[in-house]
Amino acid sequence: MIITRSKALESIERSLAPHRKVSVIGCGLCAATCETGGEKEVRQIARLLGEKGKQVPAELMVDGVCHKRLLELLARREKGRLDGTEAILILACGSGVQTAAEVFDLPVIAGLDTLFLGQIRRHGDFREVCSLCGDCILDGDASICPITRCPKSLVNGPCGGAEEGACEVIRENRCAWIEIYEERSRRGSLDALKEIRSPRDHSRHTRPGRVKTSRS
Amino acid sequence: MSVDRFRDLLGKQFVVTVELDPPRGTDLTRALRESGALRGHVAAVNIADSPMANLRMSPIALACLIRDQVGIDTIFHLTCRDRSLLGLQSELLGAWAMGVENLLALTGDPPERGDHSRSSGVFDLDAIGLLKLASGLNRGEDANGRELKGGSDFFIGAAANPTAGDLGVELSKLRAKISAGAHFSQTQPVYRARDAAAFLEEAAAMEFPVIVGLLPIKSHKMLHYLDENVPGIRIPPEVRDRLAGTPAEMVRQESVLISRELIEELRGMAAGVHIMPVGEASLVGDILETGGAPGEKGAAGSKSLEEAVRESASGSRISCRAAFRIAMEQDVPVQEVGRIIEELKIKIKGCQLGCFR
User: Nearest-CA distance from B117 to chain A in Å?
Assistant: First the structure.
C-alpha cells in the first residue's frame, strides 16, 4: 500500500490562497487506510477550509484516485456539484494528484505527502519493506529485502557496524543482514551467502516506469 | 611548465577550445599526443566526463596531467550523474588542490544510454545546482554554508544551446546559470552563424562570454545520425544539402571548409569557438591550418602515418576503407599508406573493389 502523510494545514492554505471555492476528493483505497484521505479526513479538511472562509462545493470519494477511468466517471457524475469549483484539493498519493490533474481542467493541489510502499504492521504503524527496484531477489529462503531494509542497500552484507543485532544507522531496527543470516540458518541454507552477489542493476528501474500489457 | 591561463585569454582574444575524450583505460599516449599537437593553437582543452555515460578516465585527473605535462590549460567537465552532493564537493576541492582551475558544469547523460546501464544516475544536483555549489566553494563555503579551510577560485563554465527551438526558455536558463555563478558558456553545436545570432546578442548585452560549439561532420553517416537522432542539434537544410551533395570521400574536407567559414563569421559575434572533433583531433589542425612548414612534414608525417595505421588496424589486419581514410586524413597518396601497411606486415581486408576479402 502507498503510505501518505497529511501536509500541514498552513502549507495547504498557502497553495489554496488564490481560490475561494475548493472541492475535496479523497481516496477510498490507500489514503483511507492510512487515515489521511478517507471520508473522515475529507470531511475534516472541508470543515477546516470552511472555517478559513473557503466554500467547499463538493466533498467526494473515489476508490482509487489514481484510476483515470474511475475518476472520469466521477467527474461526469458529479459535474453539477463541482460546478463553480475553482480548485480541487486531493487527499491521495502523488499518482492520484496527477491523475486528477489530467481529468479535471482545474488547478489540482496535493493535500498529502507520498512516502513509500508500505506494510501495515497494525493500525497506524507502517513500514517500508520493498523499494520497487524491479529486480526481486526474495527467493523463499530469506524473505527479507536488504535493498530496502538495510539503509545502505548492501547486497553482500552485513556492513560491520551492527552491534548486538542492531542496525548502526537506525539503532531501533534489527540489522537486516543479521536477520537474513538467522533466517537462512534456521532453514539450513547458509551456503547461499557464500555466493557473491553482483551489484544492484539499476537499469531494472528506470524513470518514468511504464508497463503496458496487451489483452487478447 | 608555464601555462597561459584560459581565463586571461577569454575576452582578450577570440579563443579556440577543443574537446577531447579521455582514454577508456589508463593509456595516456593518445591523449597527451593529441593535446600536445594543440599546444600554442588553442586556449584550452576540454576533458569530457564519461560522455554519453560511456566509461572514461577521470576528467579531473586527465585535466591535471595534460596541464602539467603538456603545458596547456584545461577545462574539465563535471556532471551530476556519478557523484552525490558530497562527492561533487570532495572532487572539486581535490581538483583545485591539484591545480586545475576551469570546469564546465553539466547535468550529464543518464547511465541508461551508456555502456554501464546497471549503474545508478545520482543527480542529487542539476547543472544549475552544480554551478551554485562551485561558486560556494569559490566563496570558501560548502553546500551548507559552512566555512572551508581554504576555498577555491574556479573559473566556471555552463552549457547552452543557442539554436534551441524556444529562445525565451534558453535565455531564461542562461540567466539562471549566470546568476548561479557561470563565468562563461560553451555551447551545443551550431552550423550557421545566423542561427545563433539572437542568442549571442542577448549574451553580449549581458557581457557574458559565449564560446560557440562546432561539431564538424565527418561522413554522410554522421550527418544522418546527428540529423535524426541527436536532440538539441539542428542542421540547417543548406548545410545538410551541401554535405549530402558532397562525394563521401570529400565530406570531411567540406566540413573543414564549413568550420573555417563559420569561425570567420563568428568572429565579432562570439567570444570564441569550441571544436568537438569526436575522436579525431587532427581535424582541429586542419580547421585551424596549424600544419607545420612543408619541410617539417616529411619525417614527422611518416611517423604519424605509421601510428595512424597501427591505431586503425585490428591485430594484423586493416580494412581497405580505413587505409583510404588515413590517406585522406594525412593528405598523402594512398600508395604511401599501402607501403607503410606492407612494411608493418599488416594485411588489408574488405577490398572496396571486391578484388579480395
Answer: 5
